[in-house]
Amino acid sequence: QVQLQESGPGLVKPSQTLSLTCIVSGGSITTTSYGWSWIRQSPGKGLEWMGAITYSGITYYSPSLKSRNSISRDTSKNQFTLQLSSVTPEDTAVYYCAREFAQGSEWYDDYWGQGTQVTVSS
Residue 121, exposed/middle/buried by CB under 10 A (0-12, 13-18, 19+)? Predict the structure, then answer.
C-alpha cells in the first residue's frame, strides 16, 4: 500500500519560503501514469490543488498561486518537495501531499498523506 508522509516546518515567517517534503513508501514516484500533488486547506476554506509533478518529472501548477510555487523530486529518495515563496498569513493551511491518477479527462487523488499544519506568522 502506498503511504505518503509530509515533513517540514510548522511555523514560517512572512516573506520567507516554505519548503515541504513528501516521502513516499510502498510505491515509486516514477511509476507510469501517476502524478504526485500538493493540496492545501486554509481555515474555513475548501481544498486547493497547488500543483503536481508527474511520474516523468513534468510539473503543473495552479495559476492562482502566481508562480510562487515550485515542485521538484528526488527519485533516489522517492520523495518530492514543494517550495512556496513570499508567504503571507493567507498561506496558513494544512498542507497535504497525494498521489493522483487520470480517469478520462479528470484527475483523482487516491492516496493522501495525513497533512501537516503550516502557520505563517511573525
Answer: exposed
Rounded Cα distance between 96 and 115, Å, is: 4
Residue 90's SS3 state is: helix
pLDDT at 54 (0 to 100): 95
The whole-angstrom separation of Cα 113 and Cα 20 is 12
Q: Is 65 helix (H, G, I), strand (E, B) or coil?
A: helix
Identify residue 66 by its one-letter amino acid code.
Answer: K
Mean pLDDT, 10 residues at a time, the chain of 122 residues: 95 97 96 95 93 95 90 97 96 97 89 97 94
DSSP class of 86: S
Q: Can you tell me the distance from the alpha carbon of 91 to that of 18, in angstroms, rounded to the nearest whole number? A: 9
Q: In what order do the strands lie in the sheet with 69-74?
A: 3-7, 18-25, 79-84, 69-74
Q: What is the DSSP letter of 10?
A: S
Q: Which of 45, 14, 22 is nearest to 109 (CA)?
A: 22
Strand partners, 18: 84
